[in-house]
Write a structure and sequence with these properties.
Strand content of chain A: under 5%
Helix content of chain B: 25-40%
Structural class of chain A: mainly alpha
Radius of gyration of chain B: 23 Å
Shape of chain A: elongated
Oligomer: heterodimer
Largest sheet of chain B: 12 strands, mixed
Structural class of chain B: alpha+beta
Order of helices and strands of chain A: HHH
Number of helices of chain A: 3
Largest interface: A-B, 30 and 39 residues
Number of domains of chain B: 2
Number of strands of chain A: 0
Shape of chain B: globular
Helix content of chain A: over 70%
């Protein structure tokens, strides 16, 4: 009986730890294969293609860069 | 009037009691004249189309697609959280974001992106008498002010009307030119103004129309009235003209920066 309880506790604890890891990964909004710098430039490019003013597109790209860097840490 | 009172004070040798009384009158007059009758309008904002269109997104690779979709989704989710206040009197107006002290919003990435894309931190001042508009904003990490002429908007008034609440509104359109690294973009601005509120102001420094603007569409966003408070005394403070820069100069800074980044 004691063995059964111990194994149940072990299974539950392992499950919680796995869930914790998944959540941490989900916080990162972008999964990046290219450099954050490149992604920021391309984001600015995409916004400007749609008529967004330069300084606004640049500020948004700056935030994307920061988020990307946090995600890569 | 103040000068006249001062002159009277100077010329007549008055006793202490009388001069005290006159000083109070002067101060009262000064205070009354610094406030003019006007009102306060609260505008909400909604997204009327995605800021990045499907064409741009479809030709992007997976990472760029994710980043650009994040822009659109952030706006759609957060745009309703922003409110703006237009304060106006007979001659001047200011338009700025009503700050919400929500700590959750400040750490939310989507909220931050939406705030940037809406240009919610910009503040706008207009003065009908001097025909000027001053936009205060942060560009490339610096606080700058851009001055332009109010009557440069070249509104085209149409016969189209619609009711907004109890007010009958007329339509006016103009073109906003945005210049960036990709070229010059012409955006149609549509304003719905009412002659029932005869003040020539509106959101984002737009105005010079025969009545107050109750609804304004500019690019991906629509500003609409949520509260109207009229017939109040409103004091408007003119922003200082420190860090004044021309839009053309700001555009050159932007282009220079992009050139440096790409090299």
């Amino acid at each position: 009986m004691r063995k059964l309880i111990l194994s149940l506790v072990f299974v539950l604890a392992t499950g919680s730890m796995m869930n914790a890891n998944t959540t941490a990964e989900q916080i990162t909004p972008l999964i990046i294969k290219k450099s954050c710098f490149q992604l920021a430039i391309e984001t600015q490019d995409g916004l400007e293609e749609n008529g967004v003013p330069m300084e606004t597109a640049s500020a948004a790209a700056g935030l994307i860069y920061d988020l990307c860097m946090i995600g890569n840490e | 009037m103040v000068d006249l009172l001062l002159l009277v004070l100077k010329n007549n040798k008055m006793n202490k009691k009388n001069s005290c009384f006159l000083s109070v009158i002067i101060l009262f007059t000064l205070f009354s004249f610094s406030q003019k009758k006007g009102g306060e309008i609260i505008y909400k904002i909604e997204s009327i189309k995605n800021i990045v269109n499907e064409k741009t997104i479809s030709k992007s690779d997976i990472e760029r697609k994710t980043a650009l979709n994040f822009m659109n989704e952030s706006l759609n989710l957060n745009v309703s959280k922003f409110s703006f206040r237009l304060k106006f009197n007979t001659t001047e107006s200011t338009f700025e974001l009503i700050d919400v002290l929500e700590s959750d919003n400040n750490i939310d990435k989507g909220y931050k992106i939406a705030k940037i894309l809406i240009q919610a931190d910009n503040s706008y001042y207009t003065d009908k008498e001097t025909n000027i508009r001053i936009i205060s904003k942060n560009a490339y990490g610096k606080d700058v002010k851009i001055k332009s002429l109010l009557d440069s908007d070249n509104w085209i008034l149409s016969n189209n009307t619609k009711k907004i609440g109890i007010y009958l509104c007329n339509e006016a359109t103009t073109i906003l030119e945005v210049q960036n690294n990709k070229g010059i973009f012409k955006k149609v601005i549509t304003a719905w103004y009412t002659l029932d509120i005869p003040y020539n102001f509106g959101p984002k420094g737009y105005g010079s129309l025969p009545g107050l603007i109750l609804e304004l569409s500019e690019g991906s966003f629509k500003y609409y009235v949520s509260k109207i408070k009229l017939n109040t005394l409103v004091k408007i403070e003119k922003p200082s003209e420190i860090n004044l820069i021309k839009q053309e100069e700001l555009d050159s800074i932007g282009k220079e920066r992009t050139k440096k980044i790409n090299n």
